[in-house]
Structures are given as structure tokens and as C-alpha cells.
Amino acid sequence: MDIFTSLMQGFGTVLTPYNLWMATIGCFFGTIVGILPGLGPGATIAILLPLTFGMNATSAMIMMTSIYYGAKYGGSTTSILVNVPGEGASVVTTFDGYAMARQGRGGVALGISAIGSFIAGILGTFGLIFVCVPLAKFSLRFGPAEYFSLIVMGMLTIVFVGGKSITKSLMSATIGLALGVVGSDVVQGAPRFVYGVPQLMDGVSFVTVVMGVFGIGEVLVSAEERMKMKTVDVKFRNLWPTIKDVLDSKWAILRGTVVGFLVGALPGAGSTIASFISYGIEKGAAKDPDRFGKGAIEGVAGPESANNSACSGAMVPLLALGIPGSGATAVMLGALMLYGLRPGPMLFTTSPDFVWALIASMFIGNIILLIMNLPMVPLFALSLRLPYRYLYPAILLICIVGAFSLNNNVYDVWMMWIFGIFGYFMKKYDIPGGPMVIALVLGPMLEYNLYRALALSLGNVSTFFVRPISATLLSMAGLMIIAVSFKAVRKKRAILEEEEEG
Amino acid sequence: MKKGDRVFAIICMGLSLWLIIESLQFDYLSEFGPGPGFEPFWLGILLAILSIALFINTFLRRTKEDDEKAQLPGIKALGRIGLIMLITAGFALCLNTLGFLITVFLFVSLILFTLEDVGILKSMFYGIMFSGSVFLIFSYWMEINFPKGFLGI
Fold first, then answer.
1. How much is the pLDDT for A497?
2. In the prediction, which pLDDT does A18 show?
3. Of A100, A139, B26, B60, which is most buried with the most CB atoms under 10 A?
4. A interface mutation test: which of B88, B103, B114 has the most A CBs within 10 A?
5. Distance from C-alpha of B62 to C-alpha of A328, rounded to nearest angstrom
6. Cβ neighbours of B27 in A, within 8 Å
7. Predicted local confidence at residue A408, as pLDDT
8. Using CA atoms in the order A496, A502, B6, B9, what is the torsion angle rounded to 10 degrees?
9. pLDDT, tens only, B1-22
10. In the prediction, which pLDDT does A232 show?
11. pLDDT score recorded for residue B19
């Protein structure tokens, strides 16, 4: 079956009233929760995950991808209206978006952000189709050794590119891997770190960790002081960008889309880096770069497009290889596993209906977001005026209900409670939660593939180095370690020289 | 930040020692490859090395602006966090005895009344609204079974 026919069948699945409704609800709630400062897409998906319980896998994932896109758009709203980025990727949007809002062009900034995000989302999804299918076919050649090497390389990339401190990111990933060893081991089925708690035999539940660290932890940080925000009024007459605004932004949107997709597809790089690169490109390409930071529309259009197409890019390693490239896609991978699906190349063969419906839903989700966002911007802006004191008990409740409904057991609520405290301190001490969550998902896969590769080669470690794909991936990981170490030594040397001169 | 990094490094050092000691209870190798003790052992070693590196780095690196800032909020804010977590723990403790609806009502009312200076009647009103909404979404729409307490609700 060719791509076009498969995609059309995917549209057939999505375009049922129920799935369309799920996509609409996902976009709406994703935007609403994404608007709340501090709650990025990962946290939003984690918090809203319970809404998908009881659905079939396809409808659940349609809703989750819609939440993902909605959360991305919601994050931009706070950046533009109150100068508080909802997540890292929206930081750049504050530079010119907030400046535009102060000039009374907040609606135009939100409008161009919605249009840019829509175009980038659609083009990015086409990119996903054309990259994902051949990559999935290629990765059918992967055996356990290749998967082991791929996971090692992917995790190192996430650690090296993601956080501010490589040491802390590595520590976070190691803790995630350590959490992953709890439960029956893959080799002998021996219970590890269980201490007589029967629920731990199945391991530490990914959902409780994610909701605790991302959901409760983030809420606690926001709730520690009584949060007050000053909003900028958005009037309907200012909402629609003019034809000139759109024409001024067209190249910024296209450049942002390409940059976002390419960067988003790399594990760890994600939408934050994509949006910064896009902003740099736009500033560099502008005839009068002095406008940037003072309300240049390209400064909103480029990064917002990059931000959104990075979402499509991030789905490439998830769907084709089964390796999440970011915290948000790690949450989605965990959710897929909850529904008994195993992402990776075989997914295209074993569950083509599901994959193509998911891809088709990304097109539909973007259309729904555009239709919903343009007229509803004032409503979303209004949600920023809801006192936070009424919002955080609601978020806490959703997390508690979600944890409880996993197994209809209070044990999961307690686990989430513990990880909530852990998440709070991680946030306060600048320890990135993403690497931990990704490592928790990938850890058992890493151990399983290591064992299988060695079992197939009768214990011969050289199997990782003589198989060409595995060797290439490990060489790339090695090169990355050398490059990062070299950079760190050079930085240290520069500081020492500076101190000596001073 | 430096102080926070040191505390984190020490906690992780403890965690790494625990991982190493516990891993020794399991077989290090199996017939063809790693046994159940292999991964936790090496994770413990890796975490120990990283903890030491972070700890030493706090003494070697130049003090940045971030390092000067206090990482934890004041006593008042910490008290708020503590109370939120206490009320959440109370939710988990009371859920099976009081039932879902009453626990949600108490949870919301208590948070609003004790932490947000909302009047008792208004807090109770929001408590009822939240219980009703959560019931409609999760219990009625999504058909999740929640515990019924001694009152049967």
C-alpha cells in the first residue's frame, strides 16, 4: 500500500465524529493548560493523560497529539501577553511578541503565531511522512546490538544538548535508569529493589513519575508564592494580521518550518534550540536587524513556526525508531506502551491503521487549532485572569485522579506524591527532569537489548563494534563525548587564563 | 546554587552507595551476558563518579549570579508547599474511608480556606463545584470507579 492510500485510510479513521471530538477537546484543553506558566507540553500531556483512560489506543493518541500541539500554542500566548514563557521554546517569542503586545499589536502577534504554527504544523507533518517511512524501513535492519547502540547515542545526545549542566543532566539520566531497574529483571526475572512491595514487581510506573515530577512538581513551584500576573488587553479589532503582516512573515515562517523540523528530529535538541536558531536566522536575514526585540513580526513568526514544526520532527524518532527525542515524546511513548503498543519500525507493519490515523490526526489537529485559536484568543487570554488559587487545586485533583485510576489503587497516588516532592526540588535546584523521564522509559529497553545482543553473540562484546550500523552509532556517541570533553576543557582553560590575567 | 549542588551531590552519593551495595545481592553475570546485578552496579559507580565531579566542581567553579541566589524559598512559601502536600497526603489517606466525592470536597475546601484566605462558605461552594465536575468528567463520562466511603457516595 502506498503512502497516499495509507494516509487516506488514516483520514478515514480520524474523520469520525468521536475522533474529531477527541481532537477538538485535546486542542482545547492542551491550549488552556499550556497557557499556564511553567507547564510545558510534557507536563501538559502528563497532567491530561488521565482524560484518555478508557479510550481505544487510536482515539487516545489522537487526543494526545492534539494536546501536544495545543500546549505548544498555549505556551506562546503567555509569552506574548504577559512576557512569561510557558516553556523554554517560547522564551524567544517574548522578545518581539511582548513588545508587539505593548504596542497594541498583541492580537496580531497571536494571530501570526497561529498562522505560522499552522503552516509549520502542516508542512512538518508532510516532512514526518517522507522521512519517517523510509527511516522505519531502514531500521527494520536493526537487531538488538543496533538498538542498544542507538539508545546509548540517543540518550547521550539528550544529555549533552538538553540541560544547562551536563553533569546534572547525566545524573538525572542515571537516576532514571536506576528507577528503571526496579521490578523483575529481564534476564532471570529476579525481583530487584522491590522490598516486599508487590506493586513494585512491575517496576516504577512511568505515569506516576511523570505526573509527579512534571505535574505536581511544577504546580508546587508555581503555588509557592501567590502568583499574580499582569495581562495585556486583546481586542478583536487587533486580532487579525493584515495581508502585509502575513507577506512580511512568509519567509520567516518557511525558514522556521525547515529549521524546526530538522532540529526537532534530533534527539534532545528539541523546539527550544529550534526557536533560538530560527530567531538568529531571521535577525541575520533582516535588512534592519535593529527592529528585533522591539516588535518585529518575523521575530514571532519564525520561532513560532520552528517551535511547531519541531513537534512533527520530534515524532520521527518516536514513530520510526521507538526512541523519544524529548520529554513530551517520552510521555507519549509511555502512553503508547500503556495501550499495549510498541513504537518502532514494526509499528508500521503491525499497526498501520493506528500509525496513519495518528499522522492524519496531526493534520486535523493543526486545522482545528487554527480554527479554534483565531477567534478564541480573547477567551484564552481571559483564562490568564483566572486566579491561580482556583487553578492549582484543579490540576492537583486531575493528577491525583489520574494516578488513582491507573490501577484503582491509592498506592499510585502515594508514588506520585513522592515524585512530586522530588520534582519540586529538581526544579528548584535546576536539575532537568527530561533526561530522567526518558531514561526511565529507555532503561529497560537498554538492558533488554544489551542482554539479547550478548546472548545472540554468545557473550561476545565485539558484536557491538563489528556490526556496521551499531559501530557507526557507537562511534558517533564516542565522538560526541570527545567533543563535549574538549569543549569543557577549553572553557575551563579560558576561565583560568582570564583569572590569571585579572 | 553551589550549596544546593553540594546537597544534591551528597544525596546522589548516598543513592549510588545503596545501588552498589544492593546490586551485590544479585548475580553479576548470567550465562551469556550481564546478570541482574550488572546494571545497578555500574549505575551506582557512574552516579558516584558524577556526584564526586559535581561536588568538586562547586569548589572549583567561579561564583556566578545564579550561585548567589537562594534556591529554596522562604519559610512562608515552604510552609505553603508543605501544607499543600500534607492536604494531598490526607486525600490519599481518607479516600477509601470517606469516599471520593467527600474527599474531593474536603481537599478543595481545605486548600482554599487554609492557604488562599477564601471564606469558609465560598471555599465550601467551590468544594462542591469541584466534586461535581470531577464526578461528571471522570466517574460519569469516563466510567472510572472510585471508592465509596462509609456514606456510600
1. 75
2. 92
3. A100
4. B88
5. 34
6. 188, 190
7. 83
8. -10
9. 678 889 999 999 999 999 999 9
10. 55
11. 95
Better-scored residue on pLDDT, A379 or B45: B45
The better pLDDT of the pair B142, A59 is held by A59
* Closest by CA position to A238, among listed A108, A378, A374: A108
Alpha helices, H only, A144-204: 144-162, 166-180
CA A455 to chain B, closest CA, distance in angstroms equals 5
- Res B65: pLDDT: 66
Query: What are the chain B neighbours of A414 within 8 Å (beta carbons)?
Result: 92
Lookup: cell for A139: 531500521
Q: Point out which residues pair with A233 in neighbouring strands.
A: none
- H helix or E strand, kind and range, residue A446: helix A434-456
Q: Which of A22, A48, A171, A221 has the most B C-beta neighbours within 10 Å, making it the best mutation to test the interface with B?
A: A171
- Look at B111 and A393 and tell me if their CB atoms are within 8 Å: yes
Q: Which residue positions in chain A have pLDDT lower than 50?
A: 236
The answer to whether residue B41 neighbours chain A at the CB level (below 8 Å) is no
In this structure, the number of other CB atoms found within 10 A of the CB of residue B13 comes to 17
- B34 touches A: beta carbon within 8 Å: yes
Query: Cell 520534582 maps to which residue?
Result: A423
Interface test with B, best of A185, A204, A216, A427 (most B CBs within 10 A): A185
User: How much is the pTM?
Assistant: 0.82
Q: Which helix (H) or strand (E) segment is A184 a member of?
A: strand A183-184
Closest partner residue to B32 among A224, A226, A458, by Cβ? A458
Residues of B in contact with A451 (CB under 8 A): 30, 32-34
Given an 8 Å threshold on Cβ–Cβ distance, is B104 in contact with A397? yes
The position carrying cell 464526578 is B135
Q: Do B40 and A174 touch (CB under 8 A)?
A: no
* Cα gap A306→A255, rounded to integer Å: 8
Residue corresponding to grid cell 529483571: A185
- In the DSSP assignment, the letter for residue A137 is H
Q: Which pLDDT score, from 0 to 100, does residue A139 have?
A: 84
Contact B107 A394 (CB under 8 A): no
Kindly provide the ipTM of the predicted complex, given to two decimals: 0.92
Average pLDDT over residues B144-151: 82
Q: Do A424 and B30 touch (CB under 8 A)?
A: no
pLDDT of residue B42: 95
